[in-house]
Design a protein that fits this description.
- This protein is mostly beta strands and about 120 residues long.
- Helix content is about 10%, strand content about 45%.
- It contains one helix and six strands; from the N terminus they run E-E-H-E-E-E-E.
- The protein has a six-stranded antiparallel β-barrel with strand order 1-2-3-6-5-4.
- A hairpin with a 3-residue loop joins strand 5 and strand 6.
- The N and C termini lie far apart (about 45 Å).
Length: about 120
């Protein structure tokens, strides 16, 4: 039995988080600054994909800057309101494309996270 059908997701680990809605003074929306502002949903291995011209053009049409495109195993609870963290760097998940076995995450870089 071969594993060829499955992509090699060995470029690293991406952690998917959702923002914790904390009440701030004056009900200001607080931006995610640190891990304390988020709750981890899942940890996935990923493969970094090349950013093709059509990906970059798609991102421009959708009004975001494509920092990184990655492939993970399909995870049904992924959505574009969540965040991805790779090597302590925070990304917004701007778009998710899927096939039978994989999710392709289009990420826009936000900031490095404080410890």
């Amino acid at each position: 039995e071969t594993m060829e059908r499955f992509p090699r997701l060995n470029d690293g680990i991406v952690r998917i988080y959702k923002k914790i809605n904390k009440k701030t003074d004056f009900n200001a929306r607080n931006n995610v600054q640190s891990y304390d502002d988020m709750e981890q949903i899942v940890k996935l291995n990923y493969q970094q994909m090349s950013k093709r011209n059509q990906d970059i053009e798609f991102a421009e049409k959708m009004s975001f800057s494509l920092s990184m495109k990655i492939r993970t195993r399909k995870f049904k609870n992924l959505n574009s309101k969540q965040y991805a963290v790779i090597d302590r760097f925070l990304y917004e998940i701007k778009y998710i494309d899927e096939d039978k076995t994989s999710s392709y995450l289009y990420l826009e870089g936000v900031r490095e996270l404080a410890e």
